[in-house]
Amino acid sequence: MKRLITDERDIFIDKQSGRDFNREQYQLLKRMLRKDDILYIHSLDRFGRNKEAILEEWKDITQNIQAHIIVLDMPLLDTTQYKDSLGTLITDLVLQILSWLAEEERTKIKTRQREGIDAAKKKGKHLGRPRTEITPEFINAYNMWKHGQITALYAMEMCNMSSPTFYRVVKRFEDRRNKNQ
Question: Half-sphere exposure (CA, 13 Å, Cβ side) for 89?
Answer without folding.
Answer: 3
